[in-house]
Task: structure prediction
Amino acid sequence: MKGAQILLESLKREGVEVMFGYPGGQVLPIFDSLYDSDIRFILTRHEQGAAHAADGYARATGKVGVCLATSGPGATNLVTGIANAYMDSIPMVAITGQVKTFLIGNDAFQEADVTGITRPITKHNYLVKDIKDLARIVREAFYIASTGRPGPVLIDIPSDIQLMDAEFIWPQNVEIRSYSPNLFGHPGQIKKAAKLIAAARKPIIYAGGGVITSGAHKELKMLAEKLNAPLTWTLMGIGGFPATHELALGMLGMHGTAYANHAIMESDLIIAVGARFDDRVTGRLDAFAPYAKIIHIDVDPSSISKNVNVHVPIVGDAKNILIELLKDIKQTPATGDWLKTVEGWKKKYPLTYKDDAGLKPQYVVEQIYEVTEGDAIITTEVGQNQMWAAQWYKYTAPRTFISSGGLGTMGFGLPAAMGVKVGCPQRVVFDIAGDGSIQMNIQELATCVANKINVKVAILNNGYLGMVRQWQELFYKKRYSQVGITSPDFVKLAESYGAAGICVAKKEEVRPALEKALKIDNTVLIDFRVEPEENVFPMVPAGQAINQFIGGLA
Amino acid sequence: MKHTISLLVENKFGVLARIAGLFSARGYNIASLAVSETLDATVSYMTIVVEARDEKILEQIKKQLNKLIDVITVTDFTKKEHLDRELILAKVNFSTKDKNKLENVFHKYVGKIIQHKGDSAIIEAVGDNVQIKALLEELHKFGVKELVRTGKLAISN
Result:
């Protein structure tokens, strides 16, 4: 078998049904083999779109997303998408072509040191130098990408290797002596945690993306209900616990609800599940949760005691650990008074916005929730649109909120939505976008239309790079520097791509437009002309304790 | 404070770059690094001396190293019994009348003059941190023109 065929056969053995990518000179043999393959290939309009689509596919399905690009510029165009997947621990395998082995290091045409470039943004990467290693490397790459704390793995394959002949030998097992993720928590630590829980009076559960990765949402709900403890989540944890649940406090941190932030600050025990105490969550570290003991459940030992000191660390898979913890909790804390206090904060500082004149972006998001009956999968871009999508849509199931958390990549939402829709064709997929972000990967509209990947894009168009404008308003005396941004006529643009476009300027048009968009059997772009200077509140300024809000109604 | 860490790693291309990259990306400073093959040719041994402000940073360094797929084991010698040595080569000022004086230095330290040519001599010496430091003070009296050091090697005992 030729190297290219070995690659595709290996991908099939790994259960790959679809790949996103773009051809080029150093992947010609792979594309020639693809011609005969039954793996579906989605030709994007930019390699960055391919990486984000593979990422969105992985987030929505839990499977490993796969993208493919040529050497040099093809590979460097994947870089943002790979870094994005790395920061959010998304299982992905990126395959790149490389110049022929004997040309490596010669500054050959379209050569770049791709394993060098991607070393700090991949969980692991490989340069295939011997055809005999190829099948084993593909096997290892999928194993590494999808186990432990997942992440992207890159395989760089020189084009001469793709053409070489070798026997196809599929390794039955993966044996990597230096890699064995710890999946089961230490029983002694779990017992200690159960003891701390029994002694708590003001416990709070703080859930992150690890809950979704490990599929621990059911156990998480059981834990919250067993302890009768309030629960807050990170941006990555959205959907891990139903937002409609009475113990739900919503998201915490910089744009979290005031009551979630007050609750974590006043708590005496934080049970962190698959979350990493990121700076957007903790605010000023030395002021964070001063009365709380911390139980930290995480699969990655390096996440533990990185930012905050932890009293009971438990390293392992969240689901496995929660199952054991639920068994070990014999005595539950009396949380009646604590819940009353939390309820008081909920009443005093509700999440709200002034629904006065004009078209409010928050209202648009609420209407998307209403019209889709909360059953859509939402992707977002980055900035105000992302925060409003996080705050105003009630997510009740995991893998329904797909957003660039760690890296904060503008331009993520549309290609990610594409990947989501490919993975979940029966679901309604909405990209909640801003007018800035959507222009960063707008070319993927062509991919959607050409492949009949029917996604809906709601642009919250305020004519600004809204989040930066908000910071300039609040912290730079309203000296708006390079934040006003022009856009094309989005309706005409959509139409020129063969998609449908709708423009909405009035509140009363929102619902009919959304209903219409759902009926159209095509990709639809809705241009919502929202209030230009609406802000995302509550807001904790960077470097402040997270109960120190400014502005708005918090 | 300086800490000595040893690693067993896969003996493959790119592994050193991964480790060096991890230190630079996180702003940790490597004071010295020595690498060589072990008895098992598929495994390399690294001794790294690293500057870490506090215990927490040292913990992070060890955890991050452990996360690298090609790293097999990480050993922290900070609180572990071990022996360490460093080899130095130094080119010092030399005149025949100083020969005895210079040779006397090596009554106290493990080392010797391996070559002298014209007005300089090359000496080699082996010792732990304290010995090397003290030896260098002696050598500076003669005048050191050039100095190269292997960096520390450490082994558990």
About this structure: The interface with chain A takes residues 9-10, 13-14, 17-18, 21-22, 25, 56, 59-60, 63-64, 66-67, 69-72 of chain B (CB under 8 Å).
